[in-house]
Description:
- Chain A contains 4 helices and 7 strands.
- By secondary structure, chain A is of the alpha/beta class.
- In chain A, the strands form 2 sheets. Chain A has a 5-stranded parallel beta sheet, sandwiched between helices. Chain A has a two-stranded antiparallel ribbon with strand order 4-6.
- In chain A, helix 1 links the parallel strand 1 and strand 2.
- Chain B is mainly α.
- The interface between A and B is medium-sized, with 18 and 15 residues.
Amino acid sequence: xKLSKTFDKALWVFHVNSGSCxxxxxxxVASITPRxxxxxxxxxxxxxxxxxxxxLFTGPVIKKTKERVLRIYEQTPEPKVVMVxxxxxSTTGVYYDSxxxxxxxxxxxxxxANLIYVNGCPVxxxxxxxxxxxxxxxxxxxxxDEG
Amino acid sequence: xxxxxxxEWHPLVLILLVLIVGFVVYLIYRMGNPFFKETKYKRExxxxxxxxxxxxxxxxxxxxxxYWGFTQALKRYFKPLVGAHxxxxxxxxxxxxxxxxxxxxxxxxx
Lengths: 147, 110
């Protein structure tokens, strides 16, 4: 898989709440505030998946959002990376036996999806920044430019 | 006598043009995203993950609605004007005669 040079510049991120309790969402917002300020690295939240390189999914996927999650995933142009933010998104967490749960995000997305897990309940902004850095390294690896 | 006629249609010129345009189109095509894969929802508009409504529900804003805000704002001005356009020549002639009469009266007193 050969990536375009545009990935050297900045990663644009689209945030999807697939059923989160809002704690991880608040931490994502905290990471773009002046204290952590990820925009200095060119990481920016965008308003549509059409502009995004990275998708942030927070919370377990519930039955009502399953279709929406899949639709947003498909509407994001390739190449893309999915960041699974928080314990609930990766394992469904404390909601594991709820009647409303469809499953963790990685069971619903296609096999070829590039997933990066950022764990925590809720995740710390430092951890999110570290996750984006990992996404960056992963994308560089996909480009075949590990140096 | 051999002579070259300039500015005249020639089949070879047309074929050459088709080849050049085809090459340019191919270059533009090559600039596209090589990762693109057709999937179920790929071409749908992004509406926060919701399903896109059917075209029949008249959600599509056509070219005739381009000046909707303009005509809506000046509705009080346009409405009598549209009403006055009856399409009857007699009506238009009445308007002409009335306007001319008004102009003549005004000019008489000025």
